[in-house]
Structure formats: C-alpha cells, structure tokens
# Entry
Amino acid sequence: MEHFDRDPSNGRKLIREMLEAGREAFLDNALAVLRAQPEAPGGHYLVTLLVANELLLPALCHPSVSREQAVALARGALRVDSMADMTLAKALISGDQEAVADPKRLMDILDEISDGTRILPTLLRLLRHDDPHIRSKAVLMIGRGSRGVRWVERRLADENPRVRANAIESMWGLDSPDARGLLQKALQDPHNRVAGNAVLGLYLLGDCSIIPELLKMSESGAPLRRSTATWVMGETGDPRFLNAIQERLRDADPMVRRRAYWALSRIKAAAAKLAQAAEWHMAARFRPPERGSKARYVRLAVASADGKEVPSILPTQFLLSEDGRPVHSYQVAEREVPAAFSVAFVFPKSVGRAEPPWVEGALRALQWKRNSDLWGIAPYRPDTGGEPAQAAAEEPVFSAGPDAIRTSFQHSGRGVPCPDLWTALWSAVKGQERLVRGENRIIIFSDAVEERSAGLELISAIITSSTLVQATSTEDNPRLEEFCRKTRGLFRRVDGEEEASRAMEQACLQLLARYEISYPPAVPEAQNLKIRAQTPSGWAEMTLAIPPPAEPSG
# Structure
C-alpha cells in the first residue's frame, strides 16, 4: 500500500494474493490500513476488493470500525458500485444474522448514504421489521424521499414514538401548507421527541410563532420535555435562547443539565462560525401603527456590502430586543419591492465643497441602485428668513448610469442661483410626473431651519402622486417635520456630518425594504430597538430610536 502509486500493477497482484491466502486476515488488515490512512494510495483498490468479494457487509459491521469510518467506507463503496445501497438494503431484509452482525448500524449507514428514492420498495418492506429502530429509520427515509405528507400523516398513528418522531423529521425543510399543518398537529403529540421534532421543523421553516412555544416547553414540569426543548435550542444555534439554556444549566434533573451544556456548546460554535460570515448593511424605520393598534411596526432592508446580493431572510432569523429585553413574540411579512423607482434628491446647495456629507452618503449608496432605477438631484437654497429665493427651478435630470449620477451630484447648483426648498420640491414633483418608470420617491436633506411652510398645493401633489418623502435634518426643523407628517412621509433628526452621511446612505437602502416586522412592545417605555438579522451566509444589525406614541387627533 505504501508504494502502491509507484507500481500499481504489482501492488494489485500482491494484495490479491493476500486475499486468496485468507479472507479473515485480509479483512482485518485491510480495515487497519483504511483506518490508519483513509487516503492512502491504493485505498480505492482495497475498497473495490471488499465490494467485489462480498466483504463490504462484515467490514461495515466490524467492531474495530467506528460509525464515522463505516459511513466513509460505505460512501467509498458507492463510488465503486453505484448499487451498493441496494446491497445493504437487501441484506437487512434477508435477516441473515451471520452476514449482518449489526442491523441497526447498517440501517444508520444506509440513512447516511442513500436518499431512499431508489430503494423505496425495500424500505417499505422494512416497515414490517421486528426492530423498532429499523422501522423508524425506514419511515424517516421514505418520508424524506417521497415527501408525501399524507403518507407521513398515517405514520403518526403508529404506537411507537420513534416511528412518529422520524416521520415528522422527514418533513423538515418541506414548505407547503399541508406540511406546516402536519407539523402543527404533531405539536400536540404526548411524546416529547415527536413534539420536539415538530417544533424544530417549524423553526427551520421560519415560523417565528414557535419561539414562545419553545421557551414555554423549556420550562415544562416534565424533565423529558425540558430536555427536548433544550436540544431543539441547541440545534437551532440561535443566541436568543442563551438565557433559557443557562437556566437549564441549574436544572434539578442531571439529564437536562447535560443537554444544556451540549446546547450551549452548539450555540457558541454557531456564533464563532457566524463571526466569519459576511457583514451586511441594514436600513430600518418605524412606520405609524394601524389605527387602534398597540403594536409597533418596522420596515427594513438588508443588502450585501457590495450591493450584489439582497439576502433572503427567514422570520426566525431576525432577533429583536427593546432596551436589552428580548422580543420573542413578533411577526414578519415579506413584500415585493417595486421593479423600479424614480428618486429625486432635494439637497441644499453646497458652497466650496465638492462632496458634502449628504452627497457623499447618497453616492456611497449607488452600489445598491438597480439598473431600472432613475436618480436625479434638485438643489435648493435654504430659507433662513428674509426674502424667499426668486430663482426659477429647473426640473432635475434623471439618469440610470452611476457615472452620470455621480457627475450631476458633484456639480449640482454650481454657478447658478437656486430656488428655496419648496420650489425645488415642486420641480422634483413635476420632473417625476414626466417619467413613466416605477414609483416616485423624494429624499430631502436639510442643514438649516426652514422659516416658511409648504403650500397646500404642494402637499396635495405629493399625496396624489403616492410619493413617499424621506427627510433628514441636522436641526430641529418644525416646518419640514410638519410637511412630512401631512404627506405621510418620514422625518429624521441627526447630529453631525458623519451621522448625516450615514442617514442618506440608509435612506437609499430603505428603498429596497422588503420586510415588515410587527410586535407588541416588550418594554412599553423603551427608548431603543435593536434588530439583528443572521443567516449562515451573513449578518447585519442596527439600533433604532423608538418614536414616542402619536398624540390622539382632535
């Protein structure tokens, strides 16, 4: 074996002579070599001989071979003989105890290497096997292979809880109304393992309503249910369950405590792995609640740093906390982002600065602009009292190309008189009226207090055109804030240039908001909401100031 790659022909001859000299001794020594050097030269040939000489079954059940090594050997056998899984399945049916020394192990290996589709007739026969472990594994493989919800549902009538639990496990990852209904039904199963598999199945589908149920289960009076709940928490790798798991570390039952230590290590491992994943950008804002609703509503967008990916995030992959207190009850709705936007940026004329922070933030957000979106800029002169600006307002020129947008933003308002804010807004509205692409949005930045209010005609035009206005100001700006309130827009107060730049970046990203989270307040008087999104491929988080409750009208 050590020199097999130097002289394969002679190596094969010598190995065959050893096999002919004694099968038992050959098997022992072949397994010793494969255990010590899994990737040794000639290893593939050794496996080929095991398969061809009916030594695969005794090799897989050999006491010197660990379960992991047996699975690796079986996968190697599949590469040599594509029908190796059929050989294992038929051996289980035969009931030959001499050929199959460890049927349970063989069934576990079969579950690892086969999707069950090709050996389905054999698996159906195994449903009548005397061993409940083999019957339950057959149920799992059939359910995974066929994805037949009705067939799995009939298995829930089986008196063996292992069969019922594996039937539910086979539904993991299948997202359909029938599958979700079956998982919901299994939550009521009296056996802890069946209910636990149903909880994990719903969590994996993104059903965030299961989170309070899982926490409730972890506090059950029955140790088995607490242990199962702790196992589910560990399987999720979700850090929101850390406090509950730490409670179980002090559990009176030693089995629950052992499970809690295991779950804690799983979540720590998941956190370490996530730390290596990509960091995304997130933009979020509160929206006014529905009339009579006490819930809070947040709309948010998540995008990769380079703008090439808009991640898909399950509801269970959002984590919320108010002033440090976790929010466990929440709902997530995903909405379709319009195919295109026409965005007018109404920015103050900058003097002596090629790229003021608000322009810098907007241009940084170009990485998220889609080819279908049009951007244009309407410069204005802040109104700080005295006579209003008399300059005529030119309608903004909208462009799709990043280079043209960058040039227009950097040279906006240079060498020409600019109108006041409200006149510039009128020009933006009229410019958007001439476009036929997508939905209209207006992003305003102000670094001075406006002394005049917007006219009713402008407010009416904004509302009639269904244009969403997002305004950011570095000053307390009552008239601009009032304009946003009357047009059902958004107003945000920021401090400093760095925050202004970031706010413009977020306002642009907010255009791509596809998630809306609603939840009852965990802390009614909370000041801040922390939102975190995390998937195996990336994560993002931000903190939002919670707006004060709206004062009742009238």
About this structure: The two ends are 90 Å apart (CA to CA). The first strand starts at residue 278 and ends at 279.
